[in-house]
Amino acid sequence: MKKRHLLAPGPTPVLPDALLAMARPILYHRGPEYEALLGRVRDGLKFLFQTKHEVLLFTSSGTGGMEGTVVNTLSPGDRALVIRSGKFGERWGEICEAYGLQPQYIDVEWGRAVDPDTVAAALAADPAIKVVFATHTESSTGVLHPIEAIARIVGKTPAILVVDAIMSLGVADLPMDAWGVDVVVGGSQKGLMIPPGLAFCAVSDKAWAMVQQSRLPKFYFNFLAERKSLEKNQNTFTPAVSLVMALHESLAAVRAEGLAALFARHDRLARATRAAVRALGLELFADPPTPALTAVAAPPGIEAGAIVKTMRTAHGITISGGQAQLKGKIFRLAHLGYADESDVVLCLAALERTLTDLGYPIKLGEGVRAVQEVLSQAG
Amino acid sequence: MKKRHLLAPGPTPVLPDALLAMARPILYHRGPEYEALLGRVRDGLKFLFQTKHEVLLFTSSGTGGMEGTVVNTLSPGDRALVIRSGKFGERWGEICEAYGLQPQYIDVEWGRAVDPDTVAAALAADPAIKVVFATHTESSTGVLHPIEAIARIVGKTPAILVVDAIMSLGVADLPMDAWGVDVVVGGSQKGLMIPPGLAFCAVSDKAWAMVQQSRLPKFYFNFLAERKSLEKNQNTFTPAVSLVMALHESLAAVRAEGLAALFARHDRLARATRAAVRALGLELFADPPTPALTAVAAPPGIEAGAIVKTMRTAHGITISGGQAQLKGKIFRLAHLGYADESDVVLCLAALERTLTDLGYPIKLGEGVRAVQEVLSQAG
To answer: Is the ipTM of this complex over 0.95?
Structure first.
């Protein structure tokens, strides 16, 4: 018998109260019970996004929310700026190009954060840019981008700032209204601790003005239609009712823990993980790192895929390898969502065993000791 | 204490085995267990769609599958033919128009089926038509359209036939390959007895050839990308994993019951419901009716909304009213998905009580007696 632990960067393990909610008899999405539930969910999402604006809800993966944002803010021929520093930054560009737009790119070395000055320079050089597409946590590299500084720069221009926060919503602080971010895109299967299938788009007044003008084609991901439906506590199209029932529980858990405690928990787990990785003599890949996950360079002579596979088959732990150009070169330990100190302890214990299994020289116990030291100081 | 019964045309009650599957620890969508599960789901979907072709799977409502079909088969300026006989036929046209297409329409009186000869005439008059968009069960009116006859006509032309079978997949027979239907769109929350959140698109070779040429913009709903992913038992974007786990159970139940028994059960429940409605002196709205649901004209002097409300508040039964121009004029009793004889009995018993509550003269017991007679003959 071997217990299985899911420590990949999404989906994360599901909150038990959310699992139970999904097992209840399903609600009719055009009835009063669902409408009351959706009303509370709308409030909870505003709390989580730290915004007074409506948070739109779509049944799709996070990518659907990204596509929705592109097609609801832009028109044919519009100028856009995409910050590319990994697979998910690239996705903004791929979506724009799929709709015939030719965005300008700021390319950043994978594993590093964008320099906000380069955003200022790009906007100064092309004042026609209407939308800046950024990523909060770039999941493929584990980097946390400086959104607050970028928001300050974009806020001084007519452009809007759109942020993919799918990996860091409820994980790293992103006070949308206080920082002046215009669109924040989130997903259900990360910090929210429920299964994948819901995307969220919070939209500022400055962005809504652009939505009113947007002429790219759209139907399923229609922001204006969805806002109108939500005002009546309905969804435009049949929503993933069971996931909304789960979301209701998850948002209650978020509110009970409190945002400050939520962010502090993720920060603590991330610092413990990074300390352990260093204590084992391994190299951290991301600078600066996100609190959502820790990307680790595979040590010399070991393919990252072998680490991922041994973690899973010999020790019951599901982690992730690298994507695209990082395949084989890094592995990613996630510590977000329904994750606590015990998860970091067992993850690092398994990593020590895995490295030993693979013949890489480490001192057993050194990683876990570093975890313990950080957690003990934090307590 | 009053038990609640969901007899609206979707979502239908969820199969208990599917509820239990969703409560299991969630699977990582890039791991071997999910890939094995998805492999079995792909087989099960082909069985249900009665096709040898791949059935694509998207995390969205059924409408997402409809939009996906439009943007993956057509190009700017293409000619299309839309059969409109209710809210969901209209939706095909709305999606086409959202993408700048100007389809030709065949308008059919709501509550009646399209005459296949009008499709033949439209195709003869405009040989440039590339896609014919039809609806199997028009949920808003309760009509079942003659897809077999339409497929025979379209099959003789270069055009493809696309059918919205969201309401009738696993309810009314639609042998895709035998009839020569080119794209069949389905959803998870109807005959499949699981929560909403998954859309399915089965695609014929003739349709794939058109997909290869299609130049409408697309990203999230990309047929070629999803087919490529599915061939490796993966999804392009993070799928609604818990719903796919539920689908796995539902497809097993479908296979265990067998398609012939599945269609016979729905036919029996529909005939019993229609007999009871007539026995109560009420008028059936749809001709010919679908086995998925029974649309009933509200009797003179009674607003359909009052029937829906009294059924819910006084008798615990959730049914649906009319949509759009039929609001207030009809109510809809569903008998699809996880529904059996006892559901029809309790629905008609509650309808008798409701009509009596509202002062409409009926003889208590006459509806249920008609149900019993049909079920007893069928047995």
So the answer is: yes
